[in-house]
Fold this protein.
Amino acid sequence: MIHGLLHGIRRCLLRVTQGFAARRRPGARRKRGGFMGRAGIDLFIEDGAYTTLSSAVVILVVLTLLFSSTAAIWSMSRAGDTQVAADSGALAGANVVSSYHTAATVVDASILSLGLAGFATIGTGLVAILIPGAEVVGSDIIDTGTQIIKTRNKFAKSAAKGLQKIETALPYLVATRAMQAVSAQDTDGVTYTGTALAVPRTSESDFVALGGSEISTDAIKDASEDLERAAEELQKASEETAKVKERAWLADCGGSDKGSVGSCSCMWERAKSLSDLSGAQNPHYSSSVTWEPQVALDRAKDYYHWRLTNEKPQGPSVEMKAESAARKAFYTYASAEVDRAYITENGDRVSSYIPLLPRNSDEVRATELYTDAVWPTSVNDDKTYLHYGTSCPNYKKGTPSGFASVADYDGQDKCSKCHFGVSSLGAVAAPSTSIENGFEYHFDKFKDALEDYVDCRNKELELERQTEDEADRAGNAFDTAIKELSGERPRIAPPGRNGVVAFAASGAVSSPDELNSSFNTAVELGDRGAISAAVLAPDDATAQNNVLSRFFSTLEERSGGVAGVLDGVMDVWGRLLVGYGDIQGAADELMGELIGGLGGGSGALGSIASWLGGTVSSSVAALGLEPCDLRLRKPVLTDSANVIKSPGSDIAGISKTQDTLRKIPLGVTDPKALCEALEYHVERTISGAVFTLAEIPLPGGGSIPLTVDVATLAGAFGGGS
């Protein structure tokens, strides 16, 4: 630079000399005057032109000004370089705090999302226990979630210790990085010494929420084992109930509704063949899953009502009229009995009453058909006989003798015409209950199956209540454990959170020989110093520009693709981790997808599974986690007074900064010694080339270390595999 300046001066002088020479006209005569004239103006001007003397004076003045200005520029440049060195130190020191803030945020994101991933997995496993087909892997899913929580506990504990340790050394790291940045400004034989002081030097971070008491899943594990046993017993009971229900369904309408009449044997087919019931009165169900026992009972009621209403003799003979009378009596009794039948389930217990319709004479004797005095009698030849009705020829011949029951004449002689008696009533249902073509045959099978169904269903309901209790206990254990995640997030307030103040100084220096000449004296600059300050300013976060994206992009560069591994290995955890900015929304969405992905169960277990799924999802939603601040903190220069006067600052006041500058020992290369010279005590230093802040465990195996490169502090914080 000096050589170029001198070359420019020579060219300027040459132009000036040539210009003055051209202005002097050849042969011009000088005016003569007195001594005063020649000694005055004439020495510098003649005939409107400048004299040689005037030109020489101008040249001397120009040279003096040029060399003086050059020396001044050089002096100001050296002073400005000192300020540049201080600015570099301030930005470098603040960048260490920024990098730490990024690392601490990544650690918090990893721990919180890892805990949520564990609970999401456990909650899914609890629900899976109750889903037929998925129950075989439910316990394995819970074991996986439990292992994730244990990993989270271990990681949180070590990370909290690592963060606390690095925070105590942060003032030292800030000073070291700033000292390196200041020293890097050395140029043209000028050496700079300086460092940066973190303001304040003490931490107010709170890592209790980060590495506090471990989250225990023992209660969840115990409850899940009891739930699994209860669910297994309930599943067996439900399967047994389903089998018995299918038997009852087969008796009622187990045939295909597309076949012709007679293609199947069941109550539906017999009613369709023997009556004129409508489709609504005689419905068909193709599966026992959609069918309920009440369908068969309603069918029987409508069938017997129809048979009673439409009963008539099948011919004019006395025998046919007597058979019709017996059938009408049977249908009257059956209709009344079936109308009193019921099947009820109040949620706690099933009860039913299905009458036993008589299938022979002996069973008739046990019913009101045997004892009701509704049959006419007459006296013929001094002997009383029982008749089917007053239209019996023998009744008409004899003397009416009132009404009696078949029991009154059981074992006595029968009317020679109608032969009516207890056997007549027993013969009505006997054929239809002993062969498949009879409605009563299938109704009797339905009755037997229904009695077994009631027993099985009541056992199932009892086990259902037990399973509900176990599910409730498991849900409560889950809710209690996951609340450990709902506490306040760790407060990240490290040393230097209000900024850093940098000091830079350089020793005495003389101007180079190229600037020294007879036109000026050599410039001697004494010790110089400068102060600067930097603070962290948040940068608007975007999907590509935030704490996590910056961390993982750096991680991929350092590890050769570990970030790509995260996409395939972490799954649940990975989704929560990248959704850390809105962690609550990410957790709610993920729980809905995981539980929904299990598929819906059916029956009692399906109902309990649905309830438990809602319970664990509600527990996650109730955490109420606030959106996390993922904005990057970038160092920016600021007025040093803003930092020096900030809360917690223990740097000397602004009026004493000059005294502080003078305390910098030039040439010192030990950051700690340099800080002590500035009356700034550094608590801890970190030895060794690399310090591991924490290791982020991968559920699929391996880990990602968060390290500090103490040797060079290049980039301060980073990740590696």
Q: What stands out?
A: The first strand starts at residue 45 and ends at 46.
